[in-house]
Design brief:
mainly beta; Jelly Rolls; 2 domains; seven-stranded mixed sheet; seven-stranded antiparallel sheet; 22 strands; about 0% helix; about 55% strand; Pirin_N_dom; Pirin
């Protein structure tokens, strides 16, 4: 089965300094048909004005991944984690038994555009933890690269779930394939650019969910720009 989630059908929240699109129910946006996809609970696409951001707030028992598309995002938490995240980098915060953190645009004159992803962990009340890693764009060009995994394999960030996050960058004439395992589920999210998947055209913000599927899939760039695509490989 394939589930379609057009980007323009997502929840939309505006707060002056913030514009956010919610793939799944979050905050003031609630849709009982879109409460998550397996352990994948949140994909928020946020645009934050210069100098603005989210003041300290708490989380518990959630794996939180941040992925910057443009600009710079500053993170600070009360468990000792902190840093500035830029395009090409992935940040992981395991909230564990409880952590308080803040996220602000690191620039006073440029907006920041990023994705924040929440994945439910496979264990609860672990110690909070934080990590950040830069990924060479060349390692993702025209191929899948592992960005997060249960064991940190292939230089990825280790997360507390039997889930893998893979990413690819596709320019004109480039394509990648994957063969789904029907015992797992997959969420394909187009972060930037446009692609075609077996005849389906997907633009930035569009997503497809797969479960019970086993047919090989081909994902190809569409248009002249470079598409940035994320693939979540999730337990059923």
């Amino acid at each position: 089965m394939i589930v379609e989630r057009p980007g323009n059908a997502r929840g939309n929240v505006r707060a002056g300094w913030l514009e956010s699109r919610h793939t799944f129910s979050f905050g003031h946006y609630h849709d009982p048909q879109w409460m998550g996809f397996g352990p994948l609970r949140v994909i928020n696409e946020d645009r934050v004005a210069p100098g603005a951001g989210f003041p300290p707030h708490g989380h518990a028992n959630m794996e939180i991944l941040s992925y910057v598309l443009a600009g710079a995002l500053a993170h600070q938490d009360n468990a000792g984690g902190g840093g500035v995240l830029r395009p090409g980098e992935l940040q992981w915060m395991g909230a564990g038994h409880g952590v308080e953190h803040s996220e602000f645009n690191a620039s006073q004159d440029q907006p920041v555009h990023f994705l924040q992803v929440w994945i439910q962990p496979d264990r609860v009340n672990a110690p909070p933890a934080y990590a950040q890693r830069a990924f060479d764009p060349a390692a993702r060009r025209g191929r899948w690269a592992t960005l997060a995994s249960p064991d940190g394999s292939d230089g990825s960030l280790a997360i507390r779930q039997q889930a893998w996050l893979r990413g690819t960058l596709l320019g004109a004439g480039e394509s990648v394939e994957w063969v789904p395992d029907p015992a797992r589920r997959y969420w394909l999210h187009v972060a930037q650019g446009a692609v075609e998947l077996d005849g389906r055209v997907l633009a930035a913000g569009d997503a497809l969910g797969f479960f019970g599927e086993s047919d090989p899939r081909t994902l190809a760039a569409r248009g002249d720009g470079v598409a940035d695509v994320l693939l979540f490989d999730l337990p059923a």
